[in-house]
Design a protein that fits this description.
Layout (H helix, E strand, L loop, with lengths): L2 H19 L10 H18 L2 H7 L14 H18 L12 H11 L4 H49 L5 H55 L4 H9 L4 H16 L1
Helix pairs in contact: 1-7, 2-6, 2-7, 4-7, 4-8, 5-7, 6-7, 7-8
């Protein structure tokens, strides 16, 4: 689980709720009409922007904001290097029955074992990578669209509340509820956009960048295995994808393992 996303949403909600409940009338911030305007309008606009089948199918991408399914890059590199060592020592066909934790890497190794041409392997893996990134970008677009729509419908609710207030100026008791709708829809729209929709879109973008790097490591590693490169060369090439601090840690762990 990605605790950062969960902690961020919960902490933001708790802090805002605490500020509300510290006031004299916390129940004044609850208004069903405002919720209907903001959430209903945002969902409706999302269905207008995107086909309904795409909306429901890409909602599965949202779990990437809460769950980190990828193997860390240093561990992935070490797995690829071990495969390179075995391939160089026992032949490429010896990798057929080796258990592999990453599905993308497993697919690439299976293509290699089947005798697929290197360029075909590269093209196949890049095509799959492009499809993965497109699904991620679609999820980002949906949530970014929701982040744009929510404040807009909050403003629509504000205008509705103001109109209702103006047409009932002769009834002082109706001014308060209408003003509440006017203000609370803006509040709800801003909260949903800036605490939920836009942050999730940004987190999906960051996840997409990390996955693209992970898949590129796999592609380059498999190309090195197919070319029968020395495992040390494969490791050196793949380490260039990660930050220097992690790179130094991997090198130190490799040195300790060899010394042992």
């Amino acid at each position: 689980m990605d605790l950062a996303t969960i902690i961020g949403i919960i902490a933001g909600g708790v802090l805002i709720a605490s500020a509300i409940f510290m006031g004299p009338t916390p129940l004044a911030f609850l208004d069903v009409r405002s919720v209907l305007i903001v959430l209903g309008g945002t969902v409706a606009a999302t269905f207008v922007r995107f086909p309904i089948a795409i909306v429901f199918s890409t909602m599965k991408v949202v779990r990437n904001a809460f769950v980190d399914r990828l193997k860390p890059a240093p561990a992935l590199i070490e797995e690829i290097v071990r495969l390179a060592e075995k391939s160089r020592r026992d032949s490429l066909l010896s990798l057929e029955n080796v258990p592999i934790g990453d599905p993308f890497l497993e697919k690439g190794i299976q293509l290699c074992v089947d005798g697929t041409e290197p360029e075909v392997v590269r093209t196949t893996l890049r095509t799959e990578l492009d499809a993965i990134l497109e699904r991620h970008q679609r999820g980002q677009r949906i949530f970014r669209g929701m982040g744009i729509s929510a404040p807009a419908f909050g403003m629509c609710g504000t205008l509705i509340g103001l109109v209702q207030m103006l047409v009932q100026m002769d009834d002082p008791s109706a001014i308060g509820p209408s003003m509440a709708v006017a203000l609370l829809t803006t509040l709800y729209g801003a909260l949903f956009a800036n605490l939920v929709a836009l942050p999730i879109a940004d987190k999906l973008g960051e996840r997409s960048t990390i996955e693209a790097q992970s898949r590129e490591i796999v592609i380059q590693g498999i190309m090195g295995i197919l070319a029968a490169n020395h495992p040390g060369i494969v490791r050196a090439r793949l380490l260039s994808f990660i930050e220097p601090r992690s790179r130094d840690r991997v090198i130190a762990q490799t040195s300790r393992r060899r010394a042992a």
